[in-house]
């Protein structure tokens, strides 16, 4: 019998699965776990087809006990992500024609294949 993952291990697994998903789509990962004094952005990626920089919030769950993906990203969370994205962008020399916030939900229940849900343009 395998030991259940800690919360940190589950989060790291979900983030890696999300990055694998994005790179499989042909996206480039610009940064992971970008931090400043006001918070953290999980993944910052470039989507070539849309010529967009995408700020990706990764939500990993082991089940549905805390509600679905829509409940996990509240309007308050979206406002915080927008603020953090603005701070990251202000520090960049490059400019993008499109900016977007996506959410990748990973459901990684023990003993099952992980399920990914990618919501584009949440805020």
Automatic annotation (TrEMBL):
Pfam families from the UniProt entry: UPF0102
Transmembrane feature ranges: none
Gene3D superfamilies reported in the protein's UniProt record: 3.40.1350.10
Alphabetized GO MF terms: nucleic acid binding
Database matches in SUPFAM superfamilies: Restriction endonuclease-like
Domain of life: Bacteria
Family annotation (CDD domains): PoNe_Nuclease
Family named by the database record: Belongs to the UPF0102 family.
Name this polypeptide is given: UPF0102 protein MSEDJ_34150
Organism this protein belongs to: Mycolicibacterium sediminis
